Amino acid sequence: AQSVTQPDIHITVSEGASLELRCNYSYGATPYLFWYVQSPGQGLQLLLKYFSGDTLVQGIKGFEAEFKRSQSSFNLRKPSVHWSDAAEYFCAVVLGGSQGNLIFGKGTKLSVKP
Amino acid sequence: GAVVSQHPSWVICKSGTSVKIECRSLDFQATTMFWYRQFPKQSLMLMATSNEGSKATYEQGVEKDKFLINHASLTLSTLTVTSAHPEDSSFYICSARDYQGGSSYNEQFFGPGTRLTVL
């Protein structure tokens, strides 16, 4: 079945450590790819997106993601995590062209240790 | 950036009553609004898509008579949960998009969500 998979439900990292959140998709064609962050009391915020072109995408708040077609992956990375990065992170795809609907993974909760 | 608000942020109601949730785009015109439902430790599930002035399009398995959606203006959409039951308790999130034509992707902007608890 077509899906967006985030294998890690919960990740804990120390402040200042590097971070990688995994996302895999299973669709025939390369969809549009997104990462969102959800903080308590706030709406989902778009961190970055990939449509085509350079496979390494820079986003806001120091995040980046790399699209790897061979692995059907779009992993999110940050070199040095800050305590304020603690939140829920969602990978999402859009199928069927630019006006398609967002399909979300189940999310990864990030906790940051002092 | 574009701002989407939701009201109320949380609501508690008795079983059998109806609850209305508002979603507003504050600084842009939303030609399309989306309603999602989020269960604990689960993904956001799209419930319906509404275009201003048109009937909403519901996803499979979503009861349109139970979840009434109205998108009467370019800045306001409402979701009414009718005859609510405890199993309707959830986190409801709206998003809004301004479709500007062409083939470019138009970003969705999300509201902060509404926590509904049905007793």
- Beta-strand share of residues of chain B: over 45%
According to DSSP, the number of beta strands of chain A is 12
Distance between the termini of chain A: 40 Å
SSE order of chain A = EEEEEEEEEEEE
Estimate the mean pLDDT confidence of chain B: 91
Oligomer: heterodimer
Stretches of chain B where pLDDT falls below 50 for ≥5 residues?
none
Secondary-structure class of chain B: mainly beta
Helix content of chain B: under 10%
Q: Which shape of chain A, going by the Cα principal axes?
A: globular
Proportion in β-strands of chain A: over 45%
Radius of gyration of chain B: 14 Å
Count of DSSP-assigned helices of chain A? 0
Q: Overall pLDDT of chain A, averaged?
A: 92
Care to describe what's here?
The complex is a heterodimer of chains A (114) and B (119). Chain A is built from no helices and twelve strands. Chain A has strands spanning 3-5, 10-14, 19-21, 24-26, 32-38, 45-50, 56-58, 64-68, 73-78, 87-94, 102-104, 108-113. Chain A is globular, with a radius of gyration of 14 Å. The termini of chain A are far apart. Chain B has 119 residues and is mainly beta. In chain B, 0% of the residues lie in helices and 50% in strands. Chain B has strands spanning 4-7, 10-13, 19-25, 32-38, 44-51, 57-58, 67-73, 76-81, 90-97, 109-110, 114-118. In chain B, strands 2, 4, 5, 6, 9, 10 and 11 form a seven-stranded mixed sheet that branches. Chain B has a four-stranded antiparallel sheet with strand order 1-3-8-7, with no helix packed on it. The model of chain B has no long low-confidence stretch (mean pLDDT 91). The interface between A and B is medium-sized, with 24 and 23 residues.
Which secondary structure elements does this structure contain, and how are they paired or packed?
The complex is a heterodimer of chains A (114) and B (119).
Chain A: E1 3-5, E2 10-14, E3 19-21, E4 24-26, E5 32-38, E6 45-50, E7 56-58, E8 64-68, E9 73-78, E10 87-94, E11 102-104, E12 108-113
Parallel strand pairs in A: 2-12
Antiparallel strand pairs in A: 1-4, 3-9, 5-6, 5-10, 7-8, 8-9, 10-11, 10-12
Chain B: E1 4-7, E2 10-13, E3 19-25, E4 32-38, E5 44-51, E6 57-58, E7 67-73, E8 76-81, E9 90-97, E10 109-110, E11 114-118
Parallel strand pairs in B: 2-11
Antiparallel strand pairs in B: 1-3, 3-8, 4-5, 4-9, 5-6, 7-8, 9-10, 9-11
